[in-house]
């Protein structure tokens, strides 16, 4: 039998050879220009790779699966930086990445060379729930989202303390006060933040703290839909083999639920416009509602819906996780609680004003310290959209620049960076709010709980007000917080990192 290619017309063979020639020529030229580019920037190769198998990184997988099962992904990553330095490469299945905990590299990715990186890989798993908005798009779409949302966060005081107090009262009414009963604050914090986020975004709280567990329709659907995002992210292209009906259902429940508020906001804005001319300018200004502010700027209902979903996702679990992690640590450190009590004592039991809350130094030290030791977004990544360079990680000493080819993922690990002893000192692994006290600790890009650069968290001030408020009110109401969990803090994986065992405490009233 003749080999099949001898049957082909000579022109076909000629064309195929030319095509092959072009491909080979291009790839040689690309690797040549890349080498020139890398040389021109003084790049040196990254000395260490985590994976011994350079193709699929299969040698790492068993350890990864074990670490996931044992909730030790973050703890395990600390080991890697100890053995491989601050910047190394890694390969796991289809992903090839550079991992770094150098503040200068992270600053370059997020700020100096912002245009060289994207989050396009995020959209695919988030879009079914979020649509396209500020949190999951790049480029012009993202810039338009940011411009749309920005004004609502730009004022001095974003969070309204009166609504926070009313939600705090719902929260407070569910706390046991006998000093004996054990309560896990985690579940209550997650309800507190969804109640306050929906109040802020839609002008109307979903009121989960007022309901029994059984009636949490929207909140439950949202919870499941978020877990599904993580699953889709892990499965990657395999997603098609594991369709998740429940996730599709939950996405619909969430989007339909929020759609009502979009309709309501667009109607309200239209009515207000129609009545605008005859409105009395001296009448009191209505409460600010995020969805109405969006509707005042665009009548595109899908856009409003998508942005609301994006901000809800970005803002809810993050703050609840901060509170859970922080209360876990506070319960283990009675001396810190006592010191907080001394800080709020001047209020003599009345509610703090916004300025007073902002000025409570030690409250802010505690929040920073929690975000340092247990950053709720502990790892993050960006993908290079063109060939580019990072300043550190090359050569044996890791002090030369490194070349980052287009398509490479750059992973940065805040959990490990926040524990660098050369930045935070020998007690970097300890929870010690005092390290922030004298204002001398200024890690800048070495402390990044809210990210940095053009995509810095837009809700930072809102989050710190929301979390600080609960902390101050709890400190006012309770003489002490007793830990009912003998274990150390342990991570749990979600989109954010929360104490695996929640925050089990009992409370002794003041
Ligand atoms: C302790 C609480 C919070 C933490 C630790 C936190 C952290 C972060 C981080 C790390 C990012 C960057 C994500 C990335 O680009 O990869 C981010 C973005 C964002 N956050 Fe927060 N966040 C918190 C609370 C909030 C709240 C309460 C809101 C809104 C009410 C909010 C709204 C956003 C939005 C809209 C973005 C996307 C910004 C953009 O891409 O332009 N966050 N946040
Ligand atoms: C907490 O960290 C932020 C960001 O680095 C800093 O600006 C702020 O001053 C810190 N707060 C305290 C009380 O040290």
From TrEMBL:
Residues annotated as transmembrane: 12-28
Pfam families: p450 (PF00067)
Gene3D superfamilies: Cytochrome P450 (1.10.630.10)
A GO BP entry: mycotoxin biosynthetic process
UniProt cross-references to InterPro entries, sorted A to Z: Cyt_P450 (IPR001128), Cyt_P450_CS (IPR017972), Cyt_P450_E_CYP52_ascomycetes (IPR002974), Cyt_P450_E_CYP52_fungi (IPR047146), Cyt_P450_E_grp-II (IPR002402), Cyt_P450_sf (IPR036396)
CDD domains, alphabetized: CYP52
Protein residues bound to heme: 457
Keyword Membrane appears in the UniProt entry: yes
Residues in coiled coil: none
Molecular-function annotations in GO: heme binding; iron ion binding; oxidoreductase activity, acting on paired donors, with incorporation or reduction of molecular oxygen, reduced flavin or flavoprotein as one donor, and incorporation of one atom of oxygen
Necessary cofactors: heme
Keywords: Heme, Iron, Membrane, Metal-binding, Monooxygenase, Oxidoreductase, Transmembrane, Transmembrane helix
PANTHER family noted in UniProt: P450, PUTATIVE (EUROFUNG)-RELATED (PTHR24287)
Similarity comment: Belongs to the cytochrome P450 family.
Protein name: Cytochrome P450 alkane hydroxylase
Originating species: Penicillium malachiteum
